[in-house]
Design goal:
Helix content: 25-40%
Family: Belongs to the DegT/DnrJ/EryC1 family.
Strand content: 5-15%
InterPro entries: DegT/StrS_aminotransferase (IPR000653), PyrdxlP-dep_Trfase (IPR015424), PyrdxlP-dep_Trfase_major (IPR015421), PyrdxlP-dep_Trfase_small (IPR015422)
Largest sheet: 7 strands, mixed
Distance between the termini: 20 Å
Organism: Paenibacillus mendelii
CATH topology of the largest domain: Aspartate Aminotransferase, domain 2
Protein name: DegT/DnrJ/EryC1/StrS family aminotransferase
Structural class: alpha/beta
Shape: globular
GO molecular function: transaminase activity
Number of helices: 15
């Protein structure tokens, strides 16, 4: 057996893998040229300027066409998109929103920023929301569910949508990490009441920051546009919306997307299909080769394998300690792998677990709910079990055939070595 690099052996790869920034790794002169046009026009604001280039509008039109939704809105970040979506639905003080235990802090953070309180549902072996756990936390104070397809793998939406419809609550799809993911042939983000996307640095497409809101509901769209722009709807004529301003106006915030971001994202959007095709091909090849070499290696399950974009390959290790050793050994082989969110459910972060906000009273956690919101460390046991022992391999769209071979060789080498040590210990 080859000696592990962590123990002084020769690494499986001579250089590290490409950085885990899918959209950024395919950036080129196209994005630079389009941004330059906006700068030369001296018009980086989307709604007016000396010579507006309307890049955000172009992005919205491309997204609407390709995602198959009538209404899209570019915003400043995905966190902003979540807040806009929640406010479009009328979520606020005194409401609860169901959030999966496995997600980034921004998901429950946006709920709190909207003056509501998150309650947490467990995951299953997809590492996404477990529909069978929804009833445990459902009460009449819950007004919405936020689903999160983690790292490019779709959520099992049919039972979640049915659950929500039966109880008259809304579904927001937080597709921050998973642009291009599909579920039964439809794009994630377009199946619920409203969907959101991220264009932050490490996302599938990027402008450094940025986000988008999509919906098929004209009323939700009207409210989303107004909330993201100080309560104003500047281009109602574009959508044939002629409702009097005083009838629908309310106070909002400023979550507008810059036309510079829009310019970059127009060119990024044109590369989306190629990025997903390459990631999916590489991920499937790696998984297939590993399955042939390591029949005992368990992979994260997908609720719809055809809709998985292949941005990350999740592998289950026997324990958190073995997962830590596996990651350390692979990193030494120049094969970067990681635990998502440090292997902890999001509710274990201290600001969530202890319900801390900037307000002295703990607003909005201070609301006198009939069923008080209490977080305990073990309330989502599957997340507690799986998250610290699920190792992710990011799959870059610029991986070569040689990269794939070296990745497989390195994982096989490390897995067999660790298994050998565990067997001797037994």
């Amino acid at each position: 057996m080859n000696k592990l690099a962590i123990d002084g052996g020769t690494p499986a790869r001579s250089v590290p893998l490409p950085p885990n920034y899918p959209g950024a790794t395919v950036m080129g002169v196209e994005e630079a040229d389009r941004a330059g046009i906006t700068l030369k026009a001296q018009s980086p604001f989307r709604y007016y300027g000396p010579h507006p280039q309307n890049a955000v509008r172009q992005l919205e039109e491309l997204m609407a066409r390709d995602l198959g939704v009538p209404y899209t809105l570019g915003v400043s970040s995905c966190t902003a998109a979540l807040v806009v979506a929640l406010k479009a639905l009328g979520i606020g003080y005194g409401d609860k929103v169901i959030v999966p235990a496995n997600t980034f802090l921004a998901t429950p953070g946006a709920v709190v920023a909207s003056h509501a309180v998150p309650v947490f549902v467990d995951v299953d072996d997809t590492l996404n929301m477990n529909p069978d756990d929804l009833e445990r936390i459902m009460d009449d104070e819950v007004k919405a569910i936020i689903t999160v397809p983690i790292l490019g793998s779709p959520v099992d939406l049919d039972p979640i949508l049915a659950f929500a419809k039966q109880r008259g609550i809304a579904v927001i799809e937080d597709v921050a990490q998973s642009l291009g993911t599909t579920y039964k042939g439809r794009y994630a983000g377009t199946l619920g009441d409203i969907g959101v996307y991220s264009f932050q640095m490490n996302k599938i497409l990027t402008a450094g920051e940025g986000g988008a809101v999509v919906t098929s509901d004209p009323v939700l769209f009207d409210r989303a546009v107004r909330y993201h722009d100080q309560g104003i709807f500047r281009d109602k004529d574009r959508y044939g919306m002629e409702s009097p301003e005083e009838t629908h106006a309310f106070l909002g915030q400023n979550y507008r997307m810059s036309d510079l971001s829009g310019a970059v994202l127009v060119e990024q959007w044109n590369k989306l299909e190629g990025v997903i095709t390459r990631m999916r091909e590489r991920c499937r090849a790696i998984r297939s080769m590993l399955s042939a070499e390591l029949p005992d290696l368990r992979f994260r399950r997908s609720s719809d394998p055809d809709g998985d974009i292949g941005s990350n390959l999740g592998m289950f290790l026997p324990s958190a300690a073995v997962a830590e050793r596996f990651i350390q050994a692979l990193n030494a082989e120049n094969i970067g792998t990681y635990l998502l969110y440090g292997g902890r459910p999001v509710y274990m972060l201290p600001q969530i677990f202890h319900q801390k906000t900037v307000d002295k009273t703990g607003f909005p956690f201070d609301y006198p709910f009939r069923n008080p919101v209490v977080y305990t460390a073990d309330m989502c046991p599957t997340a507690v079990d799986l998250m610290p022992r699920t190792v992710y391999l990011p799959v870059s769209p610029v991986l070569t055939d040689q990269d794939v071979t070296e990745i497989v060789d390195g994982i096989v080498k490390v897995w067999k070595s660790i298994n050998s040590v565990m067997n001797r210990a037994d």
